[in-house]
Amino acid sequence: MSHYTAPYLFCPACGKPLQNSIIDNHPRSSCPSCPYIHWGNFSLGVGGVLWHNDKVLLVQRGHNPGKGMWTIPGGYVDQGEPIGEAIIREILEETGIKAKPLSIIGLRDLPSERHDTYIIFLMEFLGGTLQAQPGEVSDLGFFSLKECSTLPIPSLTLSALDASHAVSQGLVFNSDVKLSSKLSTLYQIR
Ligand SMILES: [Zn+2]
Q1: What is the pTM of this model?
Q2: pLDDT tens across 14-35, in order?
Q3: Which residues are close to ligand 1, an ion, with C-beta < 5 A?
């Protein structure tokens, strides 16, 4: 299967058999009877670095990939959900903690069969009580940097903790610019 063609045979919009057409220089699955074109298979994830009293919120993954590893909380963005709301929802679901996004401090791009992009936010603690999401999270807590050094933590999470101490704030939400679509949000370097 090419990255450009659909992993299914029939149009998900109208059910007609898909055909291969050359569109923007690549053979792409398209529908002969409606406007559907398979542009690819993308997923968008978010993670959040949340410090509270000089300790960072980490969760122990309850299943693979990375079962048993300690990471920042996060998950996948729903279709139509603003990324800044997705990270609030994911942290609350996984940990019981309320937080709000301050800025974007990292982005991991994984252009594989399912092109997966993961955006890392710096968060502000608002409140709540630690409560692990059953199944997803097997353990959780706030940890000092010294305590973190004794846990199995993937390099992506370690780099996010580093970035959260950077001089630059990273990409900050800018509501002053009116974009053409009301659904758009702009994050800008600060
Ligand atoms: Zn169709």
Answers
A1: 0.91
A2: 999 999 999 999 999 999 999 9
A3: 11, 13-14, 31, 34, 36
